[in-house]
Design goal:
By secondary structure, this protein is α+β, with helices and mostly antiparallel strands. Helices cover about 25% and strands about 40% of the residues. It contains 3 helices and 8 strands; from the N terminus they run H-H-E-E-E-E-H-E-E-E-E. It starts with 6 loop residues before the first helix and ends with a strand.
């Protein structure tokens, strides 16, 4: 089965209906069935003291990436985050961050998945997240 949303349609959705994602310049790199890869470009104003990308930005990227993966599996634009857990594993470099999201389980009312975040070009995971999305009734 093919993904239910394309890179182009998700990028348009971010631009038109998710202004916070557009404000962060989050880029959609790839979408497959139940998977999504997104990129947060580097900006100096994303740094916190200590020279690292701020945790809330990483959490936002993880959430948007999982939303794309959920949409690619379900087509349910009205799905909402029910739970997001993030474990920060190492200090990200002051560079773009890539998020790879995948759906692990798709039920009737809940979708569960995981997200790995990387400093671009570095295979070491900087953060790991799990998320549940509630699907709309009907």
């Amino acid at each position: 089965m093919a993904a239910r949303i394309t890179v182009e349609s998700f990028a348009a959705m971010m631009r038109d209906a998710m202004p916070f994602a557009s404000a962060l310049d989050i880029e959609t790199l790839e979408i497959g069935e139940g998977t999504a890869t997104l990129r947060l470009p580097f900006r100096a104003d994303f740094l916190r003291p200590g020279g690292t990308v701020g945790g809330p930005l990483l959490m936002g990227l993880a959430d948007v990436a999982m939303y794309a993966a959920v949409l690619s599996a379900t087509g349910a634009a009205a799905s909402v985050t029910a739970n997001l857990n993030v474990t920060f594993l190492r200090k990200p470099a002051p560079m773009p961050v890539v998020a790879e999201a995948r759906v692990i389980r798709h039920g009737r009312r809940l979708v569960y998945g995981e997200i790995a975040l990387f400093s671009e070009g570095d295979p070491k995971i900087i953060a790991h997240a799990t998320a549940s999305y509630a699907l709309p009734a009907g």
